[in-house]
Amino acid sequence: RRMNRFASHPAYLNGLPPTGQTTVYVAGDNGTNQTGVPHRYEVLTTGQYSGTTAIILNGKTDTHSNAVVIDHQYRLMYSQTVSASVGPTSNGLLPWITNGNGEGVFTYAAAANTASLALYTDWRVPNYIEFLAQQIYQAPSALPNSTAFPSFPSGVVVATSTTQATNTANPMSKISNSGTDAVQAKTGTIRVLLVRS
Length: 197
Known about the structure:
Low-confidence stretches: 1-7
Distance between the termini: 33 Å
Helix content: 10-25%
Strand content: 15-25%
Largest sheet: 4 strands, antiparallel
Radius of gyration: 18 Å
Number of strands: 11
Shape: globular
Oligomer: single chain
């Protein structure tokens, strides 16, 4: 493969991620070229990253794993698991706009910080691009990297902090197993994958 003439340029080193598609469907497609800068993952599960932290929201507890995934290419740390056992129906689904009981994706992030998840207090809801970058668009699904995120649930809608440009009543979120954009009201419920910079 020809050397990319921009490969040593700092902007390239922190450039766009690959989609992860490797199958060639038509010559010249994404599977043919496989462009982008690969992720450099590190999974941490020992020391401060072992065990669990109790994230409490509206009297309900998410016994959340302290395991994290560091994406060194993009200098982001993700919690390895999504929200669980909290929310209106205690299944990890939370509204984007905080409800009258104080349940929401942003109050969940705040509760993780109050609890010092993995000993950090700067967790937040990822923006659309930060979550999109973790999806691997290789059939049969678009789930995140299975080594980095081995138990990522299939078919869940995951929250981002970004609002849809064409309808501000909706957040931008992703249906993780298909990779398609999810369109639902901010009052609908959604899971949370936390990130820190």
